[in-house]
Design brief:
mainly alpha, about 120 residues, single chain
């Protein structure tokens, strides 16, 4: 089963409130479990790095195997993109980093990337 389960409902609201207080605008009117930090909240590496450090501290979640580069890969700039395009390489789409994943990490008390990604919204 995917999505936020009934037991998680108590934890999603504080996570959404935390995100609303920390993520600069523009933000979508509705932030839900399926909202992706990179594509739904238009976050960049530096903002996500600050947000996630505050998230782990605020909610007392152990970082476990969390690595920001997994969800926000460093692109390398225009030259790297140009070289990849002429070599025929397709860009790798990173896994989603959703609000629901943050809520489940609060429930679990630790970040486990593969577990959270399997349960992704």
């Amino acid at each position: 089963m995917s999505g936020i389960h009934h037991d998680d409902a108590l934890r999603i609201d504080p996570v959404i409130a935390f995100i609303r207080s920390r993520v600069p605008g523009p933000r979508p009117a509705e932030i839900a479990a399926a909202t992706d930090l990179r594509t739904g909240l238009w976050m960049i590496w530096e903002d996500a790095e600050t947000l996630m450090a505050a998230f782990f501290s605020t909610f007392h979640v152990a970082p476990g195997d969390f690595q920001l580069v997994r969800y926000f890969p460093r692109e390398g700039g225009l030259l790297t993109a140009f070289l990849a395009s002429i070599s025929g390489k397709r860009p790798v789409t990173p896994p989603r980093l959703t609000v629901g994943m943050l809520a489940r990490a609060v429930r679990d008390g630790v970040w486990r990337s593969e577990v959270l990604e399997r349960q992704s919204d």
